[in-house]
Amino acid sequence: MLTFQSAVTYLLALAIPVIYLTYRHYARPQTTQIPAEDSKKPLKSIMQGPRDDLEPPKDNPYTTEALKEFDGSNTSKPIYVAIKGTIFDVTHKAEVYGRGRSYNIFAGKDGSRGLGKSSLKPEDAVADYSDLDEKDLKVLDDWYSFFQKRYNIVGKVVGDEKGDAADPPPANL
Ligand code: HEM
């Protein structure tokens, strides 16, 4: 004969594992769950977007010396940044490339090495990127495409009288 006491014990023995398993199932820590749809969302960039009003690229030759004129020190002149020998007009972003601004180090010169190495050191802001490893070369090419989509090409860097050979324009971009 089942006593009241043993019936309660029996019910509890059944109920406790059921409650525990239900808790485990529904109350797992949320931190380990990354909703699939969230991880697919593209990250919103704080950088400017690509432009669709760019002019056809120009092929004007500039020596390294001539390019220095366009480093943002003279506010009545445009600001130029060269990457792999291609010169981009970045005047409309004077707030980042102008004198005393964060990326002025790249203005009026070809600073390909620094762009590839993600370095803002003055000694890295030089045209010679021949010692970059594969990863940094990819970073440099990504910068090239970034600029190509946003800035007008006004010319290319050519060797000056001292015989400095400028880098040939990239074939794959
Ligand atoms: C703590 C480190 C850094 C932070 C927080 C940072 C932040 C930013 C921000 C907010 C922009 C967008 C600026 C704008 O469009 O107004 C930008 C653009 C840029 N950054 Fe950096 N940056 C950092 C490091 C670097 C380094 C080390 C380099 C060296 C290659 C670099 C090169 C650039 C360049 C070339 C742009 C493109 C500007 C343009 O033409 O729109 N940044 N960065």
TrEMBL record:
Annotated region (Disordered), positions in chain: 32-58
Residue span, Cytochrome b5 heme-binding domain: 62-158
Superkingdom in the source lineage: Eukaryota
GO molecular function (one): heme binding
Family recorded in the similarity comment: Belongs to the cytochrome b5 family. MAPR subfamily.
Gene3D superfamilies named among the record's database cross-references: Cytochrome b5-like heme/steroid binding domain
UniProt-listed SMART domains: Cyt-b5
Name of the protein in its database record: Cytochrome b5 heme-binding domain-containing protein
InterPro entries membership: Cyt_B5-like_heme/steroid-bd, Cyt_B5-like_heme/steroid_sf, MAPR/NEUFC/NENF-like
PANTHER family: BINDING PROTEIN, PUTATIVE (AFU_ORTHOLOGUE AFUA_4G06240)-RELATED, MEMBRANE-ASSOCIATED PROGESTERONE RECEPTOR COMPONENT-RELATED
GO cellular component, one term: membrane
Positions of transmembrane segments: 6-23
This protein's UniProt keywords: Membrane, Transmembrane, Transmembrane helix
